[in-house]
Amino acid sequence: MGTKYVDQTIKIYNAIAEEYAKQAERHAPDKQRRTFLSLLPKKATIVDMGCGSGRETKFFCEHGCSVIGIDLSEKLLAIAKKEAPQATFIKKDIRSITLPNEHVDGIWMCASLLHIKREEAPAVVKRMYAMLRPGGIFFLHLKEGVGDEERIDPSAPGITRHFTLYTKKEVEQLVSNAGFVIVRCFKPKKRKSTHVQWISCFAKKV
Question: For the segment 178-193, what is each residue's pLDDT rounded down to a tens digit?
Fold first, then answer.
């Protein structure tokens, strides 16, 4: 399991943590997170997988859920802890995280799997399946596109950040191959301020 490309991604997020947190607040997927909650029991235990600055961690806590935030960026986790002090945070790679499945009702994975290389993604999604209790809900949010991208951020000259892009069919296959039953997979309406198309997928462990 390669770590260099992940280390580079974390280095960039640490460099842009404050600005990223402000930007994230402006682009919260409100409909998706409310739908996610509607599919879960009250006071659910949720894992925010790749929680970043804690945007959704805070939201889910405010709605009475018990939340565990997972991320590798120290600076983003520091912000998240201030935003949602009632949550539990763990610095851990989503490719190797394990949690007892009898307690996890939902896993929220928004814009984090896209930083994992394509060949490693199936094992990550299968790991998510293993962590959920039967009937648990998995949410996956990825950028639409074809192939992979390596982007250089102005805040960290010479360091690339990896992005894996997916078609809707590829997302459906990725989730189904892990054992999930798809509840809904769709392309949300694009925001006027961006040309990026996202894919949202809700799935259930049966």
Answer: 999 999 999 998 876 6
